[in-house]
Amino acid sequence: MSLKPSKLVRIPSYAILLALCAAAFVGAGCSAAAGGDEPSASAAAAAATAPAEQPAASAAAEVAATPAAAPSVAPPQQFPPQDHLNKIVVAYTVASEHAELLTGLPCYCPCELYGHGGVIDCHRSQHAAMCNICMDEAIEAGQLYEAQLSRGEPGDIAAVQAQVKDRYRRALVAQTAQQLPNMNTQQGQAFLQACSDCHQPPSPGMHTPSDWDTTLTRMERYARGSNAMPTEQMWQAAISYVKSVAAQVPVNNVAQMRQSLQNTVEHLKETEGDAAYYPSVRDQVLDPVWAQRMATAYNDARALPAELLASTPTACKPCNDAGNTNLLACLNSWQAITCETAIEEIERLVASEREGAR
């Protein structure tokens, strides 16, 4: 198995996630003057001075002289880069062939919000296909493990996981330190260390100080069960930091943040299916065959005329729900990556075109 180098990308913070959710509401307004029912004064004046209707022959001549409308041109192909699609194949291949590498490896995207316990969970569904962090961690773990074996060393899974975890954890800690207040205090540093061992450091503004008690109790129970519990002094300092920052966030803002997060999670569960969230330990890693089919379908579609794709309707539900009702729009939107219906439609269209060319 040959693995391409992975690239560390920055992870959207919860604040950015909320901004993305809110952005859906921006730009919905319109000007009444631009599209209202009332005609303008100049339009009324033009109507009052308009000449009488032309004779039928004259009108027919004008119609004949009017140039035909230019044929509509299909928008260009704007598919996901093929390198990205190939990366999906590699990541799911690593997860399938070396699940032990990803079991217990923390995922540093915000997927713990919907029940993921680590990178392996992200590959039990198509979730990882839409998340660079999930794929990059898997690919990097595979690269390190492959390098050990190529040197004739026994595969050291613990060492691989420690190296990947350290790299992504440090990146997240550095990013969080720039986004939250009082990070240079003892409590702030304790928060960064205690709350980044298993996942992305949470935003203190997610809960009110009193509501944090339940969440912190759950976190402590998980940390003790995973042998990841920090020292008591560090834990108490982290708790003090979380509650002190949470106390500065208006209650209305906390409620809005929680609602936005809940809406986002519910939307993802609806579009990707419940299997992508709260995965059972019995769920198997997805067979990478689906990713290979998807990458091949996209690659084949690149050779088809944009006009043909634009004139071919799609039954892909996520694409139709988003208003992308033809194959070109569906492929351009990236939603076809995780849509079995769209992939099957591409395969049939490609087969039909090849048959017709014989």
Describe the structure.
- The protein has 358 residues and is mainly alpha-helical.
- Among the domains are: 76-179, no CATH class; 182-247; 303-356, no CATH class.
- Helix content is 56%, strand content 0%.
- The protein contains 18 helices and no strands.
- It has helices at residues 14-23, 32-35, 41-48, 56-65, 82-97, 99-102, 119-122, 132-150, 157-177, 186-194, 212-225, 232-246, 251-272, 289-301, 306-310, 317-321, 327-332, 340-356.
Q: Please count the beta strands (DSSP E, at least 2 residues each).
A: 0
The oligomerization state is single chain
Number of helices, where a helix is a run of at least 4 consecutive DSSP H or I residues: 18
% residues in beta strands: under 5%
Average pLDDT number: 78
Radius of gyration: 27 Å
Topology:
Elements: H1 14-23, H2 32-35, H3 41-48, H4 56-65, H5 82-97, H6 99-102, H7 119-122, H8 132-150, H9 157-177, H10 186-194, H11 212-225, H12 232-246, H13 251-272, H14 289-301, H15 306-310, H16 317-321, H17 327-332, H18 340-356
Helix pairs in contact: 1-13, 5-8, 5-14, 8-9, 10-12, 14-18
